[in-house]
Amino acid sequence: SLSDRLTATFRTLRGKGRLTEADIDGTVAEIRRALLDADVALPVVTTFTDRIRARAVGAEVSGALNPGQQVVKIVHEELVEILGGSARPLSFAKSGPTVIMLAGLQGAGKTTFAGKLAHHLKSQGHTPILVAADLQRPNAVTQLEVVGERAGVPVYAPERGVTRDDERSKGDPVKVAKNAIKEAVKRQHSVVIVDTAGRLGVDAELMKQAGDIRKAVDPDEVLFVIDSMIGQDAVATAQAFQQGVAMTGVVLTKLDGDARGGAALSVREITGVPILFASTGEKLDEFEVFHPERMASRILDMGDILTLIEQAEQKFDQVEAARMADKMAKGEDFTLTDFLSQMQQLKNMGSMKKMLTMLPGMGQAREQIENLDERELTRTEAIIQSMTPYERDNPKALNGSRRLRIASGSGTTVAQINSLVKRFEDAQRMMKAMAGGGGMPAMPGMGG
Ligand code: GDP
Ligand code: MG
Questions:
Q1: Which of 43, 169, 354, 414 has the smallest C-beta neighbourhood within 10 Å, fewest atoms?
Q2: Which ligand 1 atom sits closest to the C-alpha of 134?
Q3: pTM (2 decimals)?
Q4: 2-82 adopts what CATH topology?
């Protein structure tokens, strides 16, 4: 991910007394690679790294910061800049209802976001109404109605009274949007949020429809909703919508997912349109007003968290690997005590599971930890701890009556003991195979 790559880069600078030209070149090259790998658009990468190089070369060595810290500070400031500088608040109409139109590809998260925005505005004392102008998908109107109900905000839907979605969907979204504004004025709603249809790809007909809705409702804001996991497609999609609907703001969704951060960095820089909001989950309150400063900190802070994890991992690898290699070199067996110790290592890392799932690019370790069933680990621990030291070192001695005793001692069943022993034997086989050549398995004990 962007953050761990940047962290790794900064780590190499740590402790340097002063930065040489070569340090700066190396750092800038690494930042460049990290940004490209995070799907940041090439022109944005070039602008960004040029700025960093220029500032890093000219940087005065300050008393408070070492050169490495100074580069971090410069990168942070430039990240803030590229993300838009300061937060841009929503603009409201001077009179009459404020009209906010949402546009974006299908599945981007428009309808979900419509509910969140309505909920947010309502909590600030506004009286929003949601408008279902997505008549493309059969269930779109119903979906918005559900969202509206959850947010406690009314929904204007076409042809009310007709309950079947397929019949309702025959309406004309431009007319629906227009009528909705009239209705909102009549009912004195202060904000009208117009949800529109999207396609899987940029589509001329749909873009025209969005453009027509825009003309018909004369919105105060046109928010382009974009999935932050979209990667390199972000730029082309954003440009198409900029041409088609001339958005005034951007909403980044699914920032909770495995986004590599590229879309966030590219879209603002390429379109010049500010990012106003971020969506970070499926629930109503998983919503943020977008602050470039906070996002930049998050990109860099995540890196710090990652450093901790990397250190933990390295420690795990080194200490455990050395111990295991030593044991195997001496021809000793992999025992249940070893198995338990490895499980406990994993469990420690498992407590970071939630955090890890928010960090992109953790690779194999992350995948294993994500698949970790913590109850299972606790059970394994209980079982092995209920064994005598002799049994732990001699699993073959685990006969029926011993298994029964261990089961009752650990509050488990014999079937669970059997399954554990089987998993242990798999791990043991794996360890034996490893001892014959090759390296350490990443984390044995995770089988079955
Ligand atoms: P639309 O087609 O643009 O209206 O997209 P929807 O609002 O229907 O969202 C598409 C899918 O993405 C749904 O399953 C949503 O629950 C999900 N979704 C939307 N926003 C987010 C988000 O910020 N995070 C996550 N994890 N899922 C989201
Ligand atoms: Mg929708």
A1: 354
A2: 4
A3: 0.66
A4: Four Helix Bundle (Hemerythrin (Met), subunit A) (1.20.120)
